[in-house]
Amino acid sequence: MSDTQPGLQRLVVVSNRLPVALKKVDDAWAVKQGAGGLVTAMAPVLKNRGGAWIGWAGASSDPDMDVDGLLSDFCSDAGYDLATVPLTKQEVDDYYFGFSNEIIWPLFHDLQTRCRFHPRYWRAYLDVNFKFAEVVARKSTPDDYIWVQDYHLMHQAFFLKSMGVKRNTGFFLHIPFPPPDIFMKLPWRWKVIQALTEYDLVGFQTVQDRRNFMGCLQRLMPEAKAEGRGAVVTVTVGNRRFRLGAFPISIDYNQFSGLAKRPEVAQQAFDVKEALRHRKIILGVDRLDYTKGIPERIQSFHTLLRRYPDMVGKVNFIQIAVPSREEVDEYKELRQEIEQLVGRVNGEFSFPGWVPVHYHYRSLPHEELVAYYSAADIGLVTPLRDGMNLVAKEYCACNNSGSGVLVLSEFAGAAAQLQKHAYLVNPYDMEGIAKALHRALHWGRDERKASMLKLREQVRKNNIFWWVDSFLQAGISKKLDDFPEIETVQFERQ
């Protein structure tokens, strides 16, 4: 058990990966803080409040690397503790690449034909979830609030209870939850639903995801009943009661907007425009993944140029694709497909001084990404399915001029919040997207400004800290500010 002070309530975050990356710099291993919304949200909650984060370090098999020593140095600076869950290569292959990303990821994104339902993946998923739960039990106290993140760890509450460990637990699913006709294809459907009912609070990105879960629950447990209205409802199954809520995740609006205002970033944005001779810019930014709809997006831009000859030479499409799962064949094939499509469009339409599609397959430094957001006239965010999609919100936050237009997939979770002032499209409808782009490029300045102002206000009010507060209030009737700063508590690591 942990050696924290009794009676002190801490927030203990549990996720597949720790909020750090281990990187080799000049032949020595170093710990770098990770990027992304979750780290941004949780760092202030945990910092100097005795909080903890439990996860896999993503460690290399390098025998010279002292993982615990490296993390200890990071903890002192970060103001919260880290606890590692060591995983073998086989466990990573079967639990992470296997069950999590070859079954749950495609199934929950409505792409069940990509699923590989291998029984060994399921066994590995349970084994790793049990391993995580053992670390959670050792590194926390009954006073702590255990907040589990995402589909990799759906069985944490179930295993804690099976060990007789009493904890107040919350779970948040960052990806969509599918409707019953899709979820029921999962061979282990009943056990997954049962495991999720063991949490005290289960959170989803949208009300529709919450309804989908409730539909699946009632299909498998017909006695389940929901009471209440609004974002959070109470569910009764037999003598068990728990809560379900919709908590749309967001970004640190002030960080993005403030960065876009910096002179050096504004200069980078101007340089992007200058390099493209101040033509209109359509921007796509995605992790390379088959759920993001990148091939369909390129084909939509191709359709735009074919159907509207007045656009030829006057607009550029920039697609930034961040490398992901490069060792997986499906992702290699996706990359190849995208590169061929880019080549086809550029081969058909380029002329001296103008290349229509600029494709960047790399991670960009944060400032450079913000500069691209600032420079773009249209943010084109068209995933085939997405839990939320924070790119849509980042684009709005960086659009300080207020002149941009957000063209957004109706199947992104962000559409539930932003639909009134974004231009919604069906990501499978390439002619429809081409028409939407053509219209958006011809919107008047006043119309663009009015829409973007409303979008920015929505993102500013419902930011990442609002998300943390709304979940904690539903889970334990507390806010971020209710976790007072203390002298950092260091506890024993594995």
TrEMBL record:
Pfam families in UniProt: Glyco_transf_20
Tell me where the transmembrane regions lie: none
- Protein name from the UniProt record: Trehalose-6-phosphate synthase
Q: Which organism is it from?
A: Pseudodesulfovibrio sediminis
Matches recorded under SUPFAM superfamilies:
UDP-Glycosyltransferase/glycogen phosphorylase
Q: What family classification does the UniProt entry report for this protein?
A: Belongs to the glycosyltransferase 20 family.
Q: Which domain of life is it from?
A: Bacteria
**PANTHER family (UniProt xref):** BCDNA.GH08860, TREHALOSE-6-PHOSPHATE SYNTHASE
